Amino acid sequence: MTAPTLTLSPDLVEIVRPVMAIADAVRVVDREARLDIPLRESAARMRLAADSPDITAAVRTMYKRVGIDPTKTRPSSEALLRRVRRGDELPRINSAVDIINWCSFESQLPFGLYDVDRIQGDVMLRLGADGEAYAGIRKDEVHVAGRLTLVDDLGPFGNPTSDSARTMVSTATTRLMVVIFAPASIPSATVAHVLELTLRRVREYSTT
Predict the structure, then answer these.
(1) What is the CATH number of the domain that holds 129?
(2) In the sheet where 6-8 sits, what is the strand order?
């Protein structure tokens, strides 16, 4: 089966450097017990760890450069960290989403996770057009005008804050598309290391 490619709109080259990978033959379950300990230990470490000011500032700047206030529309990675530092645990959705939240939380880079078989055609990361929106996951419409937005032949379906119900990953998913919305100022080697670690964890905890 063919996999979608990801291209970047030329006007965003100096703002964001997305990386994408496809994971095939995945097995997604509602709750993977083997993740219980590593997720709990990761949350405990991050409650005590110093902030990563360079990465946090870079992600916030990425938002600001497209006109989004990151204190009002928070990157998913920062929202996870704030949740855990309030004393909550990492949310548990399903095995694949839990892994991606873990990696995003630790790296403080916003991720997107999508069911490849719910994507039609190739994918572009661009700014959302006026009026563009999609049905969010467990929420009302997500309006993406002027926001970093992933778009396929059917329209927009993802951004660094929240993804769409159309391409969400469920226990029926067998192929994943992982996207890291990396600010252009973050070294490529840093992002490559995060992606490699993410795929290693997917192979360990969520493959057949």
Answers:
(1) 3.50.40.10
(2) 6-8, 123-127, 148-152, 155-158
pLDDT for 21-30, tens place per residue? 999 999 999 9
pLDDT at residue 1 greater than cutoff 70: no
2 and 123 Cβ atoms separated by less than 8 Å:
no
Among 79, 98, 85, CA closest to 160: 79
- Which residue do the tokens 């919305």 mark? 181
How many distinct helices (H) and strands (E) make up the chain?
5, 9
Q: Are strands 176-180 and 111-115 parallel, antiparallel or unpaired?
A: antiparallel
Candidates 129, 135, 128; CA nearest to 166 is 135
Residue 20 lies in a domain: yes
pLDDT number for residue 52: 75
CA distance 106 to 59: 14
Phi and psi for 86 in degrees, rounded to 5? -80, -10
Which residues does 54 contact at the CB level (< 8 Å), separation at least 6? none
Q: Which domain holds residue 76?
A: 6-205
Q: Distance from first CA to last CA of the chain, Å, rounded?
A: 17
- Chain mean pLDDT for the chain: 94
Q: Would residue 189 count as lying in a domain?
A: yes
CB of 91 within 8 A of CB of 83? yes
Strand, coil or helix: 88 = coil
Is residue 186 situated within a structural domain? yes
* Tokens of residue 109, six digits: 């880079």
31 in a domain, yes or no? yes
Give the count of domains, the chain: 1
